[in-house]
Amino acid sequence: ANSMNQGKVPLFEKTRVIAVGSGKGGVGKSTVSANLAVALGRLGYKVGLIDADVLGFSIPRLLGIVGERPYALDENTILPIEKYGIKVISMGNFADEDTPLIWRGPLLGGVLEQFMNDVYWGNLDYMIIDLPPGTGDVPLTIMQKIPEQKFLLVTTPQASASHVAGRIAYMAQKVNIDLIGIAENMSYFECPDCHKKYNIFGEGETEKLAKELNTDVLVKIPIEIKIREKSDIGLPVAFINDPEATYYM
Amino acid sequence: ANSMNQGKVPLFEKTRVIAVGSGKGGVGKSTVSANLAVALGRLGYKVGLIDADVLGFSIPRLLGIVGERPYALDENTILPIEKYGIKVISMGNFADEDTPLIWRGPLLGGVLEQFMNDVYWGNLDYMIIDLPPGTGDVPLTIMQKIPEQKFLLVTTPQASASHVAGRIAYMAQKVNIDLIGIAENMSYFECPDCHKKYNIFGEGETEKLAKELNTDVLVKIPIEIKIREKSDIGLPVAFINDPEATYYM
Ligand SMILES: Nc1ncnc2c1ncn2[C@@H]1O[C@H](COP(=O)(O)OP(=O)(O)O)[C@@H](O)[C@H]1O
Ligand SMILES: Nc1ncnc2c1ncn2[C@@H]1O[C@H](COP(=O)(O)OP(=O)(O)O)[C@@H](O)[C@H]1O
Ligand SMILES: [Zn+2]
Hints:
The structure is a homodimer.
Chain A: H1 8-14, E1 16-21, H2 29-42, E2 47-51, H3 59-62, E3 72-74, E4 77-78, E5 81-83, E6 86-90, H4 105-117, E7 126-130, H5 137-145, E8 150-155, H6 159-174, E9 178-185, E10 189-190, E11 197-198, H7 205-212, E12 217-221, H8 225-232
Parallel strand pairs in A: 1-7, 1-8, 2-6, 2-7, 8-9, 9-12
Antiparallel strand pairs in A: 3-4, 5-6, 10-11
Bound molecules: adenosine-5'-diphosphate (2 copies) and zinc ion (ZN).
């Protein structure tokens, strides 16, 4: 496995690794990861995407690859799945979408080792890692294994969300991982009929968090019915020329 | 500790335990748990609430008890915090809201043991347990320790959400835990100006999931600005006589 991949070190030496995470689930972390990866692919970069949310995997559905099984080159090397111009691997490509994976902490680490060491990625410009929500075993292991990664925090505008979401950014700073910034998702909803804008989940909390973390709010992505519709049919908006795609570029 | 609490067994023998969970985070699980507990309290029941989301705790902010520390009766017994007519315990009452708790799987189990054994709950009619998202160590341990509990699944309407959220319900059924039903949250948004209703996150997927799990959709809670506003200031809507309170009763 390592000979194909020239071992883990070269993979991450030439490759810029961006971990996308949030202390809180359901903020849109996987949607941002998938669209960011596809957007970078459309700009001509060679991009890999690891779905590190081993128990709560959702990347296969967002990219329309539910049920696709990866090919094995030999018993130690697997080929990632290719879709929308990027290379992807997820636990969802080894298990049924509705089956609960009842695993304990130590086993999860083993799967991630394989995603990083036994997948033949080739020479990548970017590797996007969609972290599981929270500050548990997996995000910590990945931060310790790849110290040169950058971290992108995703949150929604609620005060109750930004406090929980922000915890992982404090964790990243404790282990000297650079924070790229914060992507605020579901910032407002514009009524398709009367075009009034509503800050359903509030506003201003993300700016407070950015100040405390000494970083910037990079983008504010509105609640868009089209983003959800396309997610549900496995077509990330970043792949089509729609106006929604610009948030992720 | 056990003498005060007459040990774990009596606590859960007379008490109806409802675990509120979801395979996916950010669906409104903690908001449903907090409001359900407060609503049962207003109906005259003696209610306890355990925030079992040890790393991603959010109950203290939803109930306005951030920073409140529980009293210790002796070195083995702690008193829960009382607010809005219910008794509550959360990791957030032992740690700072913004500090990342960097813990590995086995330590989390120890904290939950303490929440169940070393807290003096008295005689409760209901115990609500707000589970962490996902199908990892903690939900599994709680299901194995309290086999007579009932399980309430919370999801949002998106296809991508219901598949991930549903995984924990399949897990509950595997370990013979009764499923009470499904609470769908953020079902639609009614524009405050033109009063048009939008299924921002789609519809119909929760009914499909309920059919597969052989259970019912108990309630559909709309996206309400007031639910979020009150959550952010620590006042659950179920405690006030507003129309939003009826969803949780
Ligand atoms: N800006 C948005 N507008 C509308 N729906 C969104 C938006 N971002 C995410 N979603 C939807 O919300 C759900 C949760 O997003 P997901 O990326 O799975 O969150 P996480 O990875 O943080 O759990 C998905 O069904 C997705 O389609
Ligand atoms: N029906 C609703 N309408 C508007 N906001 C809601 C609703 N339900 C939950 N929220 C908000 O969404 C955020 C996430 O809810 P939370 O209960 O913390 O989710 P979970 O426990 O599943 O992670 C909270 O800030 C809460 O205020
Ligand atoms: Zn309108």
